[in-house]
Amino acid sequence: MKKSELIFTAILVPLDFLMLVGSGLAAYFLRTNTWITQYRPVYFELSLPFREYLSLVIGVTIFLLVVFALIGLYKIKAHRVLLDDFLKILVGISAGIFVLVFYIFLRQELFNSRFLILVGWFLAIIFVAFGRLLIGYWQRYLMKKYHLGVHRVLIIGKDKVTQKVIKNINQDARLGYLLVGNFSEPNLNKIEQKFKDSCFDEIILADPNWPKKDILELVNFCENNHLVFKFVPNLFQTLTVNSVSSTLGTVLLIEIKRTALDGWGRIIKRTFDIIFSLLFIIVFSPVYLIIALVIKLSSPGPVIYKDYRYGYRRKKFVFYKFRSMRSDLCDGEFGTKEGRDILKELEKDQDRNIRGGSPIHKIRNDPRITKIGSFLRKSSFDELPQFFNVLKGDMSLVGYRPHMSYEVEKYNLEQQKMFCAKPGITGLAQISGRSDLDFDEEVKLDLFYIENWSLILDLVILLKTPFIVLLKKYQT
Fold first, then answer.
1. What is the chain's percent helix, strand, coil content, to nearest 5?
2. Domain boundaries, the chain
3. For 226-283, how does the pLDDT look when each residue is reduced to its tens digit (9 = 90+)?
4. How far is the C-alpha of 50 from the C-alpha of 52, rounded, in Å?
5. Maximum separation of any 2 CA atoms in the chain, in Å
6. Contact residues for 138 (Cβ-Cβ < 8 A; gap 6+)
7. pTM of this prediction?
8. Is 57 exposed, middle or buried (CB count within 10 Å of its CB: 0-12, 13-18, 19+)?
9. Residue 322 three-state SS
């Protein structure tokens, strides 16, 4: 952990304090401004003089700082993603305002200015987010210009994942890493010599498929030299982090759970799915009608494409999408015979099948897709009917993407662990590369999501999804 990371994180506490107090004062002076008071006079100055108001603002600010700490806004990181922080800021400040209103209600006091609460809430979000934007910009500037706080890292590996790690480090200085070298294998003698020459801070084992003895020696080397050791897990190392202990008489038992989505977690997620899928369907019903009309006028066939997909515990369900292919090629569970024959030839074409060699296919310039279908797929509008799948309970807003039933038959045992949760409209893999990912990488991200589920993680993924679709930019 770099000293600069500690300093920048520590700065956030007084900065947030000043921004929160500043937003409260700004709301007060905005309300008492003569431009506003000439239309709506101030009545709360007698019951809430400025001195008492300032004390109230400071008290609420201290409470909000505690909330910020609990939801992870002061977690020490090499780099901060403003979008992640913004969602937590929104949740934290909203919770604080709710507690304030509840406190006023319990005291049975009459608070004469809803303006102060609403505008204070809005300004607090803007002020705190702006303060963190400035800190993030300053931190990235110092990293880029002076390498202040940069993690000097040695990468070990030679596979595709290794090259992706190296590419990410070289292309995005905001990540806070500086590549000092890349070794194709964990040769301890070469690593020791490199450490003497370059004095790096971290070692990332991007390809962990080496003998256990070599990896243990590498870990010992890192411990002895106070280096950070990280590794990219392979598919069979993505073991669960969820476990529950109990006793059977005098015998201790450990139950391994594949996901935190159990008990109240499942209830919370289902409630969240019902509320937001229903809300989305109602609000965007005009968009559904427009797309349906355009599909009907542009090509013969049904508006909705129905298929069978595997979901929770490998149960089949009817999956809905706006039709994006020619109806004479995609009717039925597996498509027409002509459609299946075309698909088989496309799957064999290495130039077109982006995911050749994996259980699923992704065809570039698919001739089966209609013109309007191409637009629907690029914009992800073809997936809008899946909100009805969410409402029915077959899918969730966030999860792994459901694949075709004949593709699932090719999954190995590790890949089938995804079925301990429901598939989703979007997911961690979709905001991290979508079809650009290797299938194994996608599965690792999906399993990570399942094992580390939280409502906050769902909100972050949902908030990022429209930006990913519109900007075609993935997190690294």
1. 55, 15, 30
2. 3-146, 151-232, 264-471
3. 788 888 776 555 554 555 554 444 454 455 566 667 666 788 889 899 999 999 999 9
4. 5
5. 81
6. none
7. 0.59
8. buried
9. strand
The first and second tokens of residue 459, run together, are 């909100």
Q: Give me the CATH topology for the region 151-232.
A: Rossmann fold (3.40.50)
Where is 363: in which H helix or E strand?
Answer: none
Task: Determine the Cα–Cα distance for residues 65 and 58; give it in Å rounded to an integer.
Answer: 11
DSSP string, 405-462: HHHHTT--TTGGGGGGS-BEEE-TTTTTTGGGS-HHHHHHHHHHHHHT--HHHHHHHH
Taking the C-alpha atoms of residue 65 and residue 93, their distance in angstroms, rounded to an integer, is 9
Residue pair 383/357 in contact (Cβ under 8 Å)? The answer is no
Indicate the burial class of 376 (C-beta count within 10 angstroms; 0-12, 13-18, 19 or more).
buried
Q: Which two tokens stand for residue 214?
A: 């070599």
Three-class SS of 161-186? HHHHHHHHHHHCHHHCEEEEEEECCC
pLDDT, tens digit, 9 for 90 and up, residues 71-100: 888 887 766 777 778 888 998 899 888 877
